[in-house]
Amino acid sequence: MLGVTVKEIEEELLDLDIEVKDANILQKFKDFCDIYNIDANKISCEYFSFNAKSKINEVVDITLERLQQFEQEKLKHLREARKPFDPIEGTENLPDCASVGTPKRAVPLSSKRNLTPDAPINKRFVSAIGSPSVAYPQSQSLSVSQPSCKYAERGNRSEVVLTYNKDGASDFTPTSAPPSISMSEVSLREPYRYMFESLRERAASLDEVICRTGDLLMETLGVTEFMDTRRTSVDPQVAIGRICCDSEGHLNSNSVVLQGSMDTCGGHVIPLDLSKLDSYSLFPGQIVGLECTNPNGSKLLVSKLYADIPVQLPAPVETDQVVEAIVCCGPYIPDQSEDFQPLLDLLEVIKDCEPHFVLLIGPFVDMQNPRIDQSAEPHERIFESMLKEIYEAVENLKTEVVLLPSQRDAHENFVYPQPPYTIDERLWNGKIRSLPDPGEMKINELLFGATSSDILLHLGKEELSFPPRSGDRFSRLSSHLLTQRSFYPLYPPSVGQNIDYEHQEKHGLITRTPHLLILPSDVIYFVREVKGCTIVNPGRLTKGSGAGTYSKISLKTENGVTSSKVEIVRI
Prior knowledge:
Layout: H1 6-15, H2 23-36, H3 40-54, H4 64-75, E1 160-164, E2 181-183, H5 199-221, E3 233-245, E4 256-259, H6 262-265, E5 269-273, E6 280-282, E7 287-294, E8 300-306, E9 321-329, H7 341-353, E10 357-361, H8 370-373, H9 379-394, E11 400-404, E12 432-434, E13 439-443, E14 446-450, H10 455-462, E15 464-466, H11 473-484, H12 501-507, E16 516-518, E17 526-530, E18 533-537, E19 542-543, E20 546-547, E21 549-558, E22 561-570
Parallel strand pairs: 5-8, 9-10, 10-11, 11-12, 14-16, 16-18
Antiparallel strand pairs: 1-22, 2-13, 3-4, 3-7, 4-5, 6-15, 7-8, 9-21, 13-14, 17-18, 19-20, 21-22
Helix pairs in contact: 1-3, 2-4, 7-9
């Protein structure tokens, strides 16, 4: 594809924690972009998907022969007649509108509206694949992952690859008192019956999300009622609804529609004209307010977007203290292995540091590990063996261990929200307990939130952002969870994310902005401060058959002000 550079491809791969230094390999990626008319983001996402499916995450495995296999499996189906063009603003190299709209499908003549508006597309909103390019700008200097190898052969052990607030003048010496941990009152506490949700129940839950957010917007904007999008109006009014795509596929500026609530417009769906907006960040499922007009009933002309819904700031903590934590996300067993040596190595770190608490996020028994999947040993027994090792390590420490399940755990319920691990806390003398996914807890009055779902990666694949490459993408993606007040605001969810929406409405909401929010993801590790909340992606303890990272976190409260210090460390 014209306009794609080797440097852009290298940066996009780095954002997915795939480091490529070989010029020949990078040039091959660029050749693929030219041949199949795709951009750097698309080629990086396709390779990430191919890599994950193959269970191989080591950079050393990226060879020209492997790229040929990647082309056969992932790119051949993209060979369709597309005119190459430059995604940068301008009309010189743009194709006809028919080449960049959403996928066409047969529509009955009696249909009330076209799936994609017939009006000409505003060219500046369109990128190489019909949507504004999605990028991870390097707005913060991140330590780059080194090429990985087999876990036992790893180098750079205990290397601090990223430090947040390294030069902070505050004293972060941990408080000596043992921690006081309590679960949120709205947390899911026991298994429930799922896969019995009716379409009517799901529709009611989804509509309730619009109504709940609408009440917040109504209070914030000072409006008394929202626009009925079924009626024409030349005067600007405020409409409320859910962002959707007019057909299957990714959002682009010409396929965005708004689905209203049953109260305001009977669930009416209408296309949006975003050409008057200077910037926006949208994704399917997002609840937004729009200042707009509806001159002829065919589409809303949007003049202002209200997507940044005010969040509740974390509650001030009166006690002066420093809480120290270690946070880690599985898998704890490398691919093609049944040996949980990475977990044992992490436990040695815990014994040396003796933090107040440890948050261990699944998967523990990873269903994506072929050796575990084929093992004759019951999955529950593998998990129990790991619990015994954890208990022996912290039995005589002040440290308390909190577990958080994952849908990749082969021995647990495959649903979201996910109940806590089925463990008897009395067997472990209260040293090991479990949260649901997502989960909230208070530790010495500090509010912590976490989810094991890879919402950042899922949002990143679906987000429509303009202008391209503007702002800090990790902060923007993370802020969506806080402004939507949900641990998983994306709808429809990513394939493999099995959501029960009735329980999501009860147990999957962010009731108050936490002091610390843990969002583990396959994208590169990071730390951000967003709307008064410290957000951490600690990475994963193992990546394929190689080693990964974990995080050391210190939260300090002094005179009602909370500050943090975070290190991302190689195992």
